[in-house]
Design goal:
With 199 residues, this protein is an alpha/beta fold. It has four helices and six strands. The protein is elongated and about 70 Å long.
């Protein structure tokens, strides 16, 4: 699960130790684009500001990473305890990126190619954060045992507490990453300057 120049932007997205189960699943990654117009760097950036995905109210992003996560979980009662025996995630990560509809002059295209490559790399870091978060969830929940819970009700409350903490940690990590990348001298900030001033 995010500031720029001339237009206020955020870039969204979502870290952990690998688990044994990590080898058993892989995320599905999708790329979607939204159309922008212009034949110069400033025009393209202005179009991003007008057409970019909205994240957090009316703030528009250059790009956005989102995910859909579902689980196949198996609970077992062992004596009077409940155990989460297995949990297999299905994770779909979607990257939304801008795409010019105009044919760009060669110098502008070169700047654009550099810009969109850098933005794509940035968003895939968010994708890595999401995968890491899912692995953290596996590590924190698979094998979890709650005593005096023969109907497996208390275990769900305990999982909610653990997942809430992991989610908050991921969101903060994502915000910190975006802040660093978009601050003066940061990678995305530099890409914006190159696009706007170079074309």
């Amino acid at each position: 699960m995010k500031t720029g120049i001339a237009v206020r932007f955020i870039m969204a997205g979502l870290a952990a130790t690998p688990s044994v189960a990590a080898a058993e699943w892989k995320p599905v990654e999708k790329v979607q684009t939204y159309s922008i117009v212009g034949t110069s760097g400033p025009e393209l950036y202005q179009s991003i500001g007008a057409r970019g995905p909205q994240v957090g109210g009316e703030v528009r992003a250059i790009a956005h990473t989102s995910f859909a996560l579902t689980w196949s979980r198996k609970y077992e009662t062992r004596g009077d305890a409940c155990v989460l025996a297995t949990a297999k995630p299905k994770l779909i990560i979607t990257y939304v990126l801008p795409k010019p509809t105009n044919v760009l002059p060669p110098p502008v295209k070169a700047n654009w190619d550099s810009f969109i490559t850098g933005v794509g790399i940035h968003e895939r870091v968010h994708g890595d954060f999401i995968v890491d978060m899912v692995r953290q969830i596996e590590a924190a929940t698979v094998g979890l045992t709650v005593p005096d819970d023969p109907k497996c009700r208390k275990i769900r409350e305990e999982m909610t507490k653990r997942l809430g903490a992991l989610s908050n940690e991921q969101r903060q990590r994502s915000r910190d990453f975006d802040r660093d990348e978009l601050s003066p001298g940061g990678n995305v900030h530099s890409l914006i300057l190159q696009l706007v001033n170079g074309g």
